[in-house]
Amino acid sequence: MKLHDLHPADGSRRPRTRVGRGIAGGKGKTAGRGTKGQKARAGGSIPPWFEGGQTPLHMRIPKLRGFKNRFRTAYEIVNLGDIAQAIESGRLETGEAPKAAKGKSAAPVTVNQELLRDAGLVRRLDRPLKVLAGGAEVTTALFVVADAFSRTAKTQIEAAGGTVSVLEVPTESRPAIGVDRPARRPRASELAAEQAARAAAAPRERAAAEPKPKRPKAERRAPSAPSATDEATPSETADGTNEAESGSPDR
Fold first, then answer.
1. Is residue 32 one of the residues assigned to a domain?
2. What is the pLDDT of residues 98-134, one digit of tens each?
3. E strand spans, 91-207
4. What is the largest distance, in Å, between two alpha-carbon atoms of the chain?
5. What are all long-range contacts of 125-130, with beta carbons under 8 Å and residues at least 24 apart?
């Protein structure tokens, strides 16, 4: 095989249709554009959203105001009235013991998301549960475990002698019970700051470690000879009077 033997596969390349080259070519005269009209003119293309002059779709449909928060928390909602009705109908088991001692109150009814789903009050378990105070007030003591409570629902449950338990989702990693948290590796900025502090403190530590040179004691000056003024000044006697005033015995 030589270079001139190479050629593309049959049907893979077709010659370009030359229009406007006479009626014998098949695409002459109007060149396949038809007779007159907007599309027959040069530059007469129509945008795909043009609908012939009628009101376009993007103007016909209503516009939604505001926005929808994509980060909101979607709760499974249940009302206290529905819980009370489920207890009365027997869909939620009560905590009454068959042989309860006299004077002791019945055990509170445990309510959680799994039990509510079995009772048909909620549908999903992959969403957090929130309890609201809609419907009739609860008169039975309840022990409700949920992710969130409204203020009124919490007040009604506690007023009926029940308790609420809020499931807390940890916002940070916590070590297992009995396992010490591993030490955090210092960041690069902390290491750089520590090295800079050491470099700044090194000259001071070096200067403090070096012994200070002892200064030589100053030589005592020899007593100077009395001056002429000192000789001319009369000396004082033992009683504090000058010899000149008291007079010498020789006189």
1. no
2. 444 555 566 788 999 999 999 999 999 999 999 999 9
3. 109-111, 129-132, 142-146, 148-149, 163-166
4. 173
5. 127/74, 127/75, 127/76, 128/73, 128/75, 128/76, 128/167, 129/75, 129/76, 129/78, 130/75, 130/76, 130/77, 130/78
pLDDT value of position 68? 86
- What's 149's domain CATH number? 3.100.10.10
**Mean pLDDT across the chain:** 82
Q: For 186-242, write each residue's pLDDT tens digit.
A: 888 889 999 999 898 888 888 887 777 666 665 555 556 555 555 545 555 545 555
118 lies in some domain = yes
List the structure tokens of 103.
């004077």
Give the range of the structural domain holding residue 154, as residue numbers without chain letter.
88-95+106-166
Confidence class of residue 93 from pLDDT cuts 50, 70 and 90?
confident
Tell me the pTM. Answer: 0.45
The single residue listed with the structure tokens 């050629």 is: 7
* The pair of three-digit structure tokens given for residue 164, joined into one six-digit string: 């609420």
Q: How are beta strands 142-146 and 109-111 bridged, if at all?
A: parallel
Q: How many domains does the chain have?
A: 1
- The reply to whether 137 falls in a domain is yes
Nearest to 162 by CA among 79, 75, 80, 76: 80
